[in-house]
Structure formats: C-alpha cells, structure tokens
Design a protein that fits this description.
The chain is about 40% helix and about 20% strand. By secondary structure, it is α/β, with parallel strands linked by helices. It folds into 2 domains: about 70 residues, no CATH class; about 150 residues, Rossmann fold, CATH 3.40.50. A hairpin with a 2-residue loop joins strand 3 and strand 4.
C-alpha cells in the first residue's frame, strides 16, 4: 500500500470517518475514498453499497476488478438515563454488535452493579460529551423523562448529525420538548428527525419490550441511513 494512502486511512479511522480503500486488482494501485466524496458511475454506486452494508467486496467494472475494503467506525449507542429500559437494551445492543454507553448524573441509578460490562458515566451529559463527542456513527436515546438531563444531549445529537435520535415521552411531552429546542436555536428540520415516542410502534408495554422496539428502530436507522 502507498504510505500516503495508509497515513490517510489511519487518520480517517482515528477521526471516526467512514472510508473505502479501493484497490485496482489489475495493477495494484489503490486510493482512499472518504464517505461523502463523490465517485461517478458504477464504482461510485458500489462504494455507496459497501458503506451502507459495511461489507468489503470485489467488483468488476468492464474488464477491471476492484477490491473495496470498507472501514466504518464502530456504531455507538449513547443512552441518556440509567433506567430499566436501558438495562434491557444493553445486552441486546451487545448481541447486535453495537457499543452501548450510559450517561446519568443520578448516582443512585448509574452504577456498575446495575450495568455490568457496560460503560456508565455518573455525570451530567454536558460534561461527558465535552470529552466524548457525538458523531454521525452515534445513536442517541434519551429516556430519563427529565428535560434537565435529556434536552442538552438531544440538541447536541441533532447538531452532530447522529444517525438516530430518539426520546421517551408522550406526544404532549414531546410538543413541549420541541418548543424548548426551537427556543434553543435548533431548526424545525432537525427537530423532525427525533423519534418520539421512541421505538418502533409494536405496542410495547414493558421495559423489555420497549428496549426491543428501540433497538429495532436504531438498527433500521443505521441500515437505511443517508450517506453524507
């Protein structure tokens, strides 16, 4: 591999930027294509498919073979609220291949005993996200039902174009949330991305069922996301 291409690849991975290493198998030349960079024709279409699926592949265009080596940042779920729903989500996320972290300043809830094997921050979201910024490969689920805790990370997730933003609460609760977000400078277009009430509409009632509905909605959002 060209050392310059390798340097760019390592930088993209460090920056949590999705990319595809395109290698011409006929002559061995390679180049790095970052997500969002336009490539025309069949090759561009194949790169887009590879970025969506996360699967590397060999393709043939005319008489030339290319190997597309996909590098996606690990998809991460940041849950605001160390509640029963989150306890049920953690093992489901792990089985589905998603990293899940929990933020809740309420120290009685945010304990390692309640979330064994899961990274838990017993701090305010503002403090945690200052050192662990959100990005387009993060999903945010706000489930505390407390605007003092939920509002900031929801707004930040919208600003950072997280692939999923969901918030627990009734339609009446969400209407008040929308008013606060608008007053805070978040556009109506961005606010409309929020999934509220949170989770797919499967008639979920228990925390465990809601966790399934939320995880299903997150997976759907990731696999059907729009590439920048």
């Amino acid at each position: 591999m060209d050392p310059l291409v390798l340097k760019k690849l390592n930088q993209a991975r460090n920056d949590r930027k999705a990319c595809v290493l395109v290698t011409n198998l006929d002559d061995g030349r390679d180049r790095l294509v970052l997500e969002g960079h336009l490539v025309e024709g069949e090759l561009g279409e194949a790169i887009s498919r590879a970025l969506l699926t996360g699967k590397s592949m060999t393709i043939q265009i005319n008489e030339t073979e290319f190997f597309l080596n996909v590098h996606l940042p690990p998809a991460k779920i940041m849950v605001i609220g160390a509640v029963h729903i989150t306890q049920a989500m953690a093992p489901i996320a792990k089985m589905a291949g998603y990293d899940l972290e929990v933020i809740d300043p309420r120290t009685a809830f945010a304990t390692q005993e309640r979330f064994e094997g899961t990274l838990v921050y017993s701090e305010w979201p503002e403090d945690v996200l200052a050192n662990n910024p959100l990005d387009p490969y993060c999903a945010l689920a706000a489930v505390t039902h407390d605007p003092k805790i939920d509002d900031f990370p929801i707004a930040e997730a919208l600003r950072q174009n997280c692939f999923y933003v969901g918030a627990l609460g009734s339609r009446k609760t969400h209407a008040k949330r929308v008013e606060r977000l608008l007053a805070g400078g978040i556009s109506q277009e961005k606010i409309e991305r929020i999934k509220a009430p949170i989770g797919l509409d499967i008639g979920a009632a228990s925390p465990q069922e809601i966790a399934v509905a939320v995880m299903a909605q997150i997976i759907e959002a990731f696999r059907k996301r729009r590439l920048n």
